[in-house]
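Researcher: Let's walk through a ligand-bound prediction step by step. First, I give you the protein sequence. Second, the SMILES string for zinc ion. Third, you return the three-dimensional complex as structure tokens. Ready?
Model: Ready.
Researcher: Here are steps one and two:
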Amino acid sequence: MGQFKHQVIAQQEVKRIVASVGLDGMILELEGLITAGMIATKDLGFAGSLVSKHTNYKQLSEKQIYWVGRMIERALSGDEPNPVVEEGLTGMFKLFEATNDKLQWPKIRLQTDSGLPIVLSIAGSRAKAPGTINITDGGKYGENIWYGRISKEGVWESPAIQAKGFEAIRALIHAFNEDPEVIAATQGKVTGHCCFCSKELTSEESLGVGYGKTCAHNFGVPWGKTNTS
Ligand SMILES: [Zn+2]
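Model: Step three, the predicted complex:
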């Protein structure tokens, strides 16, 4: 499909969004596209500023509203494939699946040995690739690094393979996928925080396991297998 046809479909899609959900819905859409890493890096700052301006002041000018639509259109029509980092990363999906009907926006927060933060989240139903795992550095809209997405088939595509520390991030994602429970527990013991809810681990039991009891239930990981050392 040619670029022109992509653009026509994107324009129709934007018209549909405007007609059905209005400006609030468009802002939500744009926010979703930012989170999903669908906005080009050069546009991220601008897109983020439009979202926060509307969210905080509800005072977008006509020109700015035009740009909200334009950004959505660009994101929906652009379909540049990103390089594949790794395949076979299906292991961590079971944790997110376990949170269905329990958590609305489940996140998993990890960090590399050198302390680079990694946040995993599931793309919502409004995103371009619903149900895929998005990987970011956990930064704010417009300021975060998008390390790509993992499809339900376990294929990780990333536009950021040149990013600082990417090899350590790749190793961590790989290890987490192989053995989520062990990595989740290890992370909690190293950071002192639960990787699922980011709360500080305070009880001796939670510190022993490496994550909180409620989160263990929510994410379907075992609770109570403490390491006595
Ligand atoms: Zn927790």
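Researcher: And what stands out?
Model: Residues 2-77 form one domain. Residues 194, 196-197, 199, 211-212, 215 surround zinc ion (CB under 6 Å).
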